[in-house]
Write a structure and sequence with these properties.
Oligomer: single chain
Order of helices and strands: HHHHHHHHHHHHHHEEHEHHHHHH
Mean pLDDT: 84
Low-confidence stretches: none
Radius of gyration: 24 Å
Number of helices: 21
Shape: globular
Helix content: 55-70%
């Protein structure tokens, strides 16, 4: 593939992404059944003509989790990535032949057994316990997500497809990061912002946390290209131009990652960058590790300076980070009195244990978007600190989950019952399990335990084998792709230890990468041993 074709494909994919997000943001996105039929025929036609290109588009549209290709009255939602994935798979099978295609699909390893365990546990729960009415719906959802997994397995095994795929992931990350920053700018200006929680960009995801965790993918991709080795497809461009574009992309992604105020994503990004640093040390030496860490740190500092200088975030980022240790700063509105005439004169305790303690001071807890209206009413707006409620909520979730696991150790309680068992937050939304391992174990019991153990063992084996056999100088493009895969997967799974996002499409993209990482590393080691 020439550079011109490569950039043309990415440009078309970026334009499609932009149009879909633009129409969705301004509520111009409408679709009927005839529209859906036409889009489906067009997509499957393109899938037969160029399945790799459709696969690249599927990855570019990976963040579009809030957009459905079916009309609103349809009983199901259909994400763009799913339709494109099905088209790419069918096109690949028809062009490559059923025997060759399915031999790749059926060539299973530990990661595949983990996926099989998830499906078997879900299916058994449905067959044995007929009361699990939601289990069938979740089985269908998992079957849909399996398309993303199989699509990744098939296409990522080809070097050319991997390069185009990572380019598509980088483009989608840059675009959704740009939209996230735009959301905060629109919120500050009092315009339509489409944020689930005002002040926290969620892009095209349902929650800001999912956007933050997704951004780990493009963060690692751009970092690997910037600090290890550029893809061969970009060799014909000016080195200074490529470095400048990659630095700007990394800067934009880091800004949005900070703005999401998603601490699980911050932790995942830190783990992912640390894993990448280990691989850079093995592939390029200690000096390049230092260069990469200084580069990452400098860009992060500049991102924080820009966020604070332009007041892009309504959150106190320092307090948000400190709340990880237990305390959270909250905003309150107090009635003016002789002892409370300004923000700094109200006799409010420095810390409280519960917001009911504010009543004797004629103060109430308010949301950030209420500050202006409360000040217009003549109230005094100030702040105090309280124990972060998420800490106690997580403790309660883990205690409840542990009890449910003890009561249902074999098949769990089923996917649809998790939210009901764990209760709701103050906004009426059901809690998730706050941890990927807990989510699997409480939902499907021993099968979830097996899936977690297999994934953990596979990740350690793949990482160790690659660290052991990777040359310490002049890494090839395939080496960089494997390093990118391992680092991004490590970061995303680390973030999911503080969240539970198994039903996100990009999680199944990462699961699919385990398959190719194992095979590519295995083939890589075999070739080394032959030399």
């Amino acid at each position: 593939m020439t550079l011109k074709n490569y950039l043309t494909i990415l440009g078309i994919n970026a334009a499609i992404f932009f149009v879909l997000v633009f129409t969705w943001h301004f509520s111009l996105y409408t679709i009927s059944y005839p529209d859906f039929i036409f889009i489906t025929l067009l997509v499957f036609g393109c899938g037969f003509y160029r399945p790799q290109w459709v696969f690249a588009l599927a990855l570019t549209l990976l963040p579009l989790e809030t957009l459905s290709l079916l009309p609103p009255e349809a009983p199901l939602t259909l994400r763009p990535t799913l339709l494109l994935g099905c088209a790419a798979l069918l096109g690949y099978v028809l062009k490559s032949g059923f025997t060759n295609s399915f031999s790749r699909i059926l060539r299973i390893n530990g990661a595949d057994f983990a996926v099989i365990a998830i499906f078997v546990g879900t299916l058994l729960g449905l067959l044995i316990d007929q009361d699990r009415t939601d289990q069938g719906r979740y089985l269908l959802i998992l079957a849909m997500l399996l398309t993303t997994y199989i699509m990744t397995k098939l296409f990522f095994y080809h070097t050319q497809a991997r390069t185009l795929a990572w380019g598509s992931v980088a483009v989608s990350g840059i675009l959704v990061a740009g939209y996230g920053v735009t959301q905060n700018i629109l919120f500050n200006a009092g315009l339509i912002h489409k944020q689930a929680m005002p002040g926290r960009p969620n892009g095209t995801f349902a929650e800001a946390d999912w956007l933050g965790i997704f951004l780990i993918l493009p963060l690692i991709v751009v970092s690997a290209w910037l600090f290890i080795r550029k893809p061969k497809i970009l060799d014909s461009l000016s080195q200074a131009l490529v470095n400048t574009l990659l630095t700007i992309a990394l800067f934009l992604i880091q800004i949005t990652l900070v703005l999401t105020v998603a601490r699980s994503a911050w932790i995942g990004a830190l783990v992912g960058v640390s894993a990448l640093s280990c691989l850079i040390w093995r592939m390029r030496g200690l000096q390049q590790v230092l260069i990469s860490l200084v580069g990452q740190g400098s860009i992060a500092v500049l991102a924080l300076i820009l966020i604070n200088g332009l007041s892009l975030s309504t959150f106190n980022l320092e307090q948000r980070l400190q709340s990880t240790a237990g305390l959270q700063e909250i905003t309150i509105a107090c009635e003016a009195s002789s002892s409370c005439t300004s923000t700094f004169s109200c006799p409010i305790p420095i810390t409280i244990t519960d917001i009911t303690e504010l009543e004797p001071y004629n103060c109430t807890f308010i949301d950030l978007e209420e500050i202006s209206s409360k000040e217009d009413e003549g109230l005094i707006v100030t702040t105090t600190k309280r124990p972060d409620p998420t800490v106690s909520v997580r403790q309660e979730i883990y205690q409840t989950s542990l009890q449910e696991i003890k009561n249902n150790p074999f098949l769990g309680i089923g996917w649809g019952m998790v939210g009901q068992k764990l209760g709701e937050d103050e906004h009426g939304n059901t809690h998730n399990s706050a941890n990927l391992a807990v989510q699997l174990i409480i939902s499907i019991g021993v099968f979830g335990i097996g899936a977690i153990l297999l994934l953990t063992a596979m990740s350690i084996v793949i990482f160790a084998r690659f660290m052991r056999h990777t040359p310490s100088a002049n890494p090839e493009e395939g080496d960089v792709i494997i390093a990118t895969t391992l680092s991004s997967a490590t970061g995303i799974f680390a973030a999911n230890m503080f969240n539970a996002g198994l039903l996100q499409h990009y999680m199944w993209f990462i699961l699919g990468l385990f398959f190719t990482s194992y095979l590519i590393t295995q083939n890589y080691v075999t070739n080394l041993e032959k030399k």
